[in-house]
Design goal:
Helix 5 packs across helix 14. The protein is an alpha/beta fold and 347 residues long. Strand 1, helix 2 and strand 2 form a beta-alpha-beta unit. Strands 3, 4, 5, 6, 7, 8 and 9 form a seven-stranded mixed β-sheet that branches. It has a two-stranded parallel sheet with strand order 1-2.
Length: 347
């Protein structure tokens, strides 16, 4: 068994043991610093698994100087705006948000949600660990938002279109369908450009919206579909892979400045482990989620190269749409990062 996989299996084991005996937020009597991390997802999610790896690393390598407290399932704060506000005030140290959620306070972050930019996990991971995100970190800090970007990890695989009654093989098959999106502008615009009707609905309301026909489909990763039991209503998935589901991890800038440099260094090193663990967890679970979808009566369609190209061409106006709102600089940075990572022979 490869060493990397052994380490990840050990980490997964630690998650189970820690949850089972209730020690995830046990008090460290001699801790000088407490770092609170909140997520909206449950303890079964890759975000949480990655945070457990982060907690284990930071507490061990700080020799007990740091205690990391984890608050899954919205226990600390109930919405993205509330959680981001807590970061900005220094009440909370760590919280993740998707590119769409980040767009609420830093709109150019939506550049990483442009469709059909990434071709595989390794390329996406390379881009999202490079100069593009360094520039985003600098600009968020320069704007005085009291937020520091720590890193990026995958949160659910790849977004695909999933529908309730009609199979989608080509973009024309989406025309007229009511497709659920997040409130993010870029998600809604993509659906509109493909000819469907964008219907923003909260995640908590999606199951009912599918059951009652308020929407006829959604754009989600397969693990989110299975995790929320949406396969009870969604019966078709087309593997168009229009976006890589990245989550951006934010640290409270006031809290960051209160940490000594050696602890800051450990936090950054810990987040490399967090990202690697979460990314691998997604890859390990994704194939099983597709099997569960099919076992529930669902059909998965892999488009041909020509059909995939048709999706790309149908959404070709997404770049002009982005440039009109946020300029060309971010597109140039994205293109450069993709080209550099694509040229890496290791990928």
């Amino acid at each position: 068994m490869p060493m990397k996989r052994k380490v990840l299996l050990f980490i997964y084991g630690c998650v189970v043991i820690a949850c089972g005996i209730g020690l995830i937020n046990s008090t460290t009597n001699h801790a000088e610093y407490t770092i609170k991390a909140s997520i909206q997802a449950s303890t079964q999610d890759e975000d949480y698994v990655g945070l457990v790896a982060f907690k284990h690393f930071l507490e061990q390598h700080s020799q007990g100087r740091v205690e990391v407290q984890l608050y899954p399932s919205g226990q600390f704060c109930g919405s993205v705006p509330e959680c981001i506000g807590n970061l900005q005030k220094g009440v909370l140290e760590i919280f993740p948000s998707t590119a769409g959620g980040t767009g609420n306070f830093f709109s150019p972050a939506q550049v990483i949600d442009l469709p059909y930019v990434f071709s595989n996990d390794e390329q996406a991971e390379c881009v999202l660990a490079g100069p593009l995100m360094d520039e985003m970190r600098k600009q968020v800090l320069a704007q005085g938002l009291n937020l520091r970007l720590l890193g990026v990890s995958n949160t659910g695989g790849w977004r695909n279109f999933a529908t309730t009654k009609k199979a989608v093989h080509r973009p024309q098959d989406l025309v007229g369908l009511k497709i659920r999106t997040t409130p993010a502008d870029i998600q809604q615009e993509l659906v509109r450009q493909l000819g469907a009707n964008s219907t923003p609905i909260s995640w908590a309301e999606l199951y009912t919206a599918l059951a009652t026909g308020v929407v006829e489909g959604s754009k989600n990763g397969i693990q989110d579909i299975i995790g929320a039991k949406l396969e009870e209503h969604l019966k078709f998935v087309v593997l168009d892979g229009h976006s890589y589901m990245a989550t951006l991890w934010w640290f409270s800038e006031p809290a960051w400045q209160a940490l000594p440099s050696d602890i800051q260094h450990l936090v950054l090193e810990g987040f490399k482990i967090q990202a690697a663990t979460a990314n691998q967890f997604v890859k390990d679970q994704e194939a099983n989620s597709y099997r569960l979808f099919e076992a529930a009566g669902g059909t998965i369609y892999r488009p041909s190269d020509a059909e995939k190209q048709a999706f790309i061409e149908a959404s070709s106006q997404m770049r002009p749409w982005f440039a009109q709102r946020f300029g060309n600089d971010w597109l140039t940075l994205l293109d450069s990062a993709v080209a550099q990572c694509s040229a890496d022979p290791a990928l």
